[in-house]
Specification:
This protein is globular. α4 (112-132) packs across α5 (155-165) and α7 packs parallel to α8 (218-228). It has helices at residues 18-27, 42-47, 69-86, 112-132, 155-165, 176-182, 186-193, 218-228, 244-255; strands spanning 4-8, 31-33, 52-56, 90-93, 98-99, 102-103, 135-139, 170-175, 197-202, 233-236. The protein contains nine helices and ten strands.
């Protein structure tokens, strides 16, 4: 099985204009991940010829908040035309509304209503995805370093939600950087989560740099993914610790 590699254009080649970053990533043979597509020049992005793997799939609200979950669905609907134009296959959502990466309304305890709201919202997103041929992926986040105040953010929670729903158009965006900080035991996590994985994202710990700069043994994880028959996408969502071109070479070597 061949693993497809993609790179988040928001985090590498930062000295270049955004469209030039996408061109460079594409020229190096990687797919491209986006965050917020709204400020982007979509026509210019299309002209690069890049293969766009995923993008943020909502712009307001929280999947698990009964007061704002409708905003997740309505803004997802607004973003779907852009996803279809770019050929994006996966739209990423979180169990929180984020402002500059932080919880807009922090909460430090989960409640039964959050679980029920999360399931119902994901079901609605799954119906949207089925109509348009898209998959919504629920990303796990760490609450220790990067995203405090986000309930149901850990990989075990996102896995529980997507497994309980078991919808073909709703999967996990399994972020191994976040999982290492919050939970560890990554190979066992990959094994348990495999049926629910829509895409995998990687960065090393500490520092959120490319594989090979920290404590995670990504070649061992890549080997396990091959044993398991995973042929989906692994995306680098990491800051380059050095020259971005060299960082992408390290990423490819660690996952090859």
């Amino acid at each position: 099985m061949t693993i497809q590699l993609a790179v988040c254009a928001e985090m590498v080649f930062l000295d270049l204009p955004f469209v030039e970053r996408v061109k460079r990533i594409h020229e190096l043979g990687f797919g491209v991940e986006l965050w917020d597509s709204r400020p982007k020049d979509i026509k210019a992005l299309l002209a690069t010829g890049a293969d766009f793997s995923s993008m943020t799939g909502y712009s307001a609200g929280s999947v698990i908040d009964p007061h704002t979950c409708d905003d997740v669905v309505s803004t997802a609907e607004e973003l779907i035309p852009t996803a279809l134009e770019l050929g994006v296959q996966r739209m990423v959502v979180h169990s929180a509304e984020l402002t500059d990466g932080k919880a807009t309304r922090p909460a430090y305890r989960s409640a039964g209503e959050m679980w029920l709201t999360g399931l119902r919202t994901l079901e609605r997103l799954g119906e949207l995805g089925a109509r348009h041929g898209l998959t919504f992926t629920l990303e796990n986040l760490n609450t220790v370093v990067d995203h405090p105040g986000i309930p149901l953010a850990r990989a075990k929670d996102t896995l529980a939600l997507t497994s309980a729903l078991d919808h073909p158009n709703v999967k996990m965006m399994l972020d191994l950087y976040h999982a290492q900080i919050g939970e560890g035991n990554l190979i066992d996590l990959v094994r348990r989560a495999l049926p629910q994985i829509g895409e995998i994202q990687v960065a090393d710990v500490p520092g959120r740099h490319e594989p090979g700069t920290g404590e995670i043994r990504y070649p061992a994880i890549a080997q396990e993914l091959r044993i398991l028959g995973y042929s989906g996408t692994v995306g680098l969502e990491a800051w380059a610790s050095c020259d971005s071109g060299q960082a992408l070479k390290r990423f490819r070597a660690a996952l090859s």
